[in-house]
Amino acid sequence: MGFVFFFFVSWLVTVLFSVMKKSLSFVENIFVYLIILIVSVNWSWIIFEEFKFLELSRQPLDYTAFLINRSISIPLIIVITLNAVRSANVNGKAYLYVGLSTVILLVLVKIGNFLNITKLNNWNTMYDVLYFLSLHLIAYFSLQMFRKLKKEEVTMS
Fold first, then answer.
1. CA distance 109 to 117
2. What predicted TM-score, i.e. pTM, was given to this entire model?
3. How confident is the model at residue 68 (pLDDT cuts 50, 70, 90)?
4. What is the DSSP secondary-structure string of 74-115?
C-alpha cells in the first residue's frame, strides 16, 4: 500500500512540476533539485543507517516507497516551492508557500510512519520540521550562490 501511495505522490508532484509556470530557468531547477537530492540522500543515510534514529522497513516495496519519497518527491516539492517563492511578489506569500510545503512534507512523513515504512526510535516531529525548513534554506541560498557565480562568470569574460 505504501509503495502505491508514494508512487502516486511522486507522479503527481512530477506532473505538477511539469505543467507549472516556472520562475527559475531549466539549469537553475536542475541545480536546486540535485543539491536537495544530495542533501536528502546523505541526511537519510546518517539518520537511518548511522545514528539509527529511525528504522526503515525491510519489505522491498516499502523500502522502494521510502526511496521514491526521498529521491523524487522531497526534492521536487522543494523545487516547486522555490519556483513559487521566486514568483511571489509579497514576502508573506513566500512564507506561506514554505509553510505549506513543510506541512505537505510532514504529512508524507506521517503517512510513511502510519504505513510502517519508517519507525520512530529516538525521533521527534520537530526534527522533521527543522530538517524541511533547512532544506528550503539550503535550496534558496544555493540558488543565490549559483546566480552570483553565474553573474560573476559573465562579467569576468
1. 9
2. 0.94
3. very high
4. HHHHHHHHHHHHHH-SSHHHHHHHHHHHHHHHHHHHHHHHHT
